[in-house]
Amino acid sequence: MFFKLFAKECGQMLKSLIYYLFLAALIFFYVSQVGSFTPYSEPLKGQEQSYGLKASSDKQEIMGATLAMLAREYEGNSYTAYPVGFYKNVVLTEEKQEEIHQILTACTGMEDGYTEAIRESDGKTPIENGAVIQMTGVNPPILAPAEDLSYDKFLRYMKKADKIIGGGTSYAVDKIKNNAMTYATYEDAKKIYDASLYTDRISRGKARIFCDYIGIILGLLPVFLAVTRTLRDKRSMAREVIYARKASSVTIIAARYFAAVFLIIVPLLLLSVMPTLQCMYYGHQLGVSVDLLAYGKYILGWILPEAAFVLALGFFLSESVGGPAAILVQVVIWIVSISAGGTKLVGSVGWNLIPRFNNDQSTDVWLSVYGQMVKNRLLYAGLALVLMAGTMVIYHMKRKGVLGGRGKNFIHRKRTL
């Protein structure tokens, strides 16, 4: 019974205009955002200041850059924050301003005159073809920390400052290291290049950026498929006929749900064929073994739980409160999820529905967040199952006439869920 209904649901969805609009949006987003295959560039020795940037490991430089940033925001009483991913300009009360002042005094040994004490760093300004290159974060202004200020103590003060401002600032412990950037060396660039070829085997890095972009649009679009399917019975006046079917509520809802999941994932697998072939060709040229299953594994492990959750939420809300509410709720979740990472587009995972990894290299960063990524995806897969179980219960109650007051006229026998 399940497979018969599953095939019928797939057929119904393939006749739906909404599904083809979904495919059109998916393909357009893929073509416009992911783009063509870009080979990795092997770094060449002797090209200083051309290997990109990296976070500085110099603790004195990190402290100096962070304190200069805090001092300038303190004197203007204008603090930049992303408390829930959205930009927010924070203006503190006099009491909280005094707390920031105490932090600055403790960290610098100075009561005032912070602006005058801020100096440019000693690093050389990068020059290319006679023109000054402006690179954010490189050789930032410095406010010298007190001589007796340890790095651990500094971190405690910055954690306190972040809390006073309201969170989501550049003074959070996990963001402080990015306040001072420096140029990567040839050795740094070569390590990244080799990891992309031999650890990621080319295709894994490309698959991550594929999932990063596709994850953005699949954090929203599947809800329309769920709402459309739920409303279809109501509009065609077929709900009473469906309520009278011998098939259980579990079978009916499961067939609808898995048909939608199937018709979302299959186009993604088809889209991944071309980039996989490109990775194979590129790997053959370099003599590198390519992971041929990388796209499939990332789509199933990264994208599937997200799409499954969005669909499940759409079905649940459509059955319980109605389609418009389902779309509205998902739009809000999507906006919050997109914004939750703030400006951090590489390695932003946490418990966000739409994790970001907008880089086809950065293997070391990926390995560092992999454990959290697994937990994140398991969470949303679990929530999808819970929501679908709830949808089945609501649907069954409607069939029995407990909800909606309809199904009871068509159910004349005791029926299992």
TrEMBL record:
Transmembrane segments: 12-31, 213-231, 252-275, 295-318, 325-346, 378-397
Residue ranges constituting the ABC-2 type transporter transmembrane domain according to the UniProt record: 180-342
Membrane topology: Multi-pass membrane protein
Subcellular location(s) per record: Membrane
Keywords: Membrane, Transmembrane, Transmembrane helix
Pfam families, A to Z: ABC2_membrane_3
Name of this chain's protein: ABC transporter permease
Organism whose genome encodes this protein: Blautia hominis
